Amino acid sequence: MRLNIDCVRDVMLWAEANSDLRHPAIYIDTVLSKSLAEAYEEVPPPIPPPQFELLTRYDNDEIVYHIKYCIRAGLLDEFASPDGYSIGVSDLTPSGHAFLESIRYPVVYEKVKKVLNMLGVKSLEAAMQASSLVITNLIKSAIG
């Protein structure tokens, strides 16, 4: 699967908004939960409301891939899921917070995407570098 930087950003925003000190953000893999429910002749678990917004923008497999990618990339801390069909995120890592802050606001994020598109580069590392440079240039222009 190809990396979708928009999905990375949305996953990071979802994780931040839906986790706190005592409650992880839980994403139910709808495909896996349905398969397991059918195999055991059970009803699939309900989808948490915060997950609906992600599912209106991306398909389930793309979201699962990008959540796992963000965990492996050190942007999110995983929370062990006991059920086997959901992914838990306990929090953003310090690197995850720094990256999200650099792409949180649409005006900055659109400039980052413009740079990435001009260069034809879609990697997380390039997005991190581009966001840092965009912010540096915005700071310079604000200072005068």
Radius of gyration: 17 Å
Task: Give the SSE order as H and E letters.
Answer: HEHHHEEHHH
What's the rounded overall pLDDT mean?
94
Report how far the terminal alpha carbons are from each other.
43 Å
Sequence of strands across the biggest β-sheet: 1-3-2
| Sheet with most strands | 3 strands, antiparallel
Any low-confidence stretches, pLDDT <50, length ≥5? none
DSSP helical segment count: 7
* CATH domain fold name of the largest domain: Arc Repressor Mutant, subunit A
* Large-scale geometry: elongated
Task: State the CATH class of the largest domain.
Answer: Mainly Alpha
Give the beta-strand count. Answer: 3
Structural class: mainly alpha
Description of the structure:
This protein has helices spanning 5-18, 30-39, 49-57, 60-72, 94-103, 106-119, 124-143; strands spanning 25-28, 76-79, 86-92. With 144 residues, the chain is mainly alpha-helical. It has two domains: 5-93, Orthogonal Bundle (Arc Repressor Mutant, subunit A), CATH 1.10.10; 105-143, no CATH class. A three-stranded antiparallel sheet has the order 1-3-2. β2 and β3 form a beta hairpin. The protein starts with a helix and ends with a helix.
How is this fold's topology laid out?
Blueprint: H1 5-18, E1 25-28, H2 30-39, H3 49-57, H4 60-72, E2 76-79, E3 86-92, H5 94-103, H6 106-119, H7 124-143
Name some characteristics of this structure:
mainly alpha; 2 domains; 3 strands; 10% strand; elongated
In summary, what is this structure?
The protein contains seven helices and three strands, in the order αβαααββααα. It has 144 residues and is mostly helical. 26% of the residues are buried.
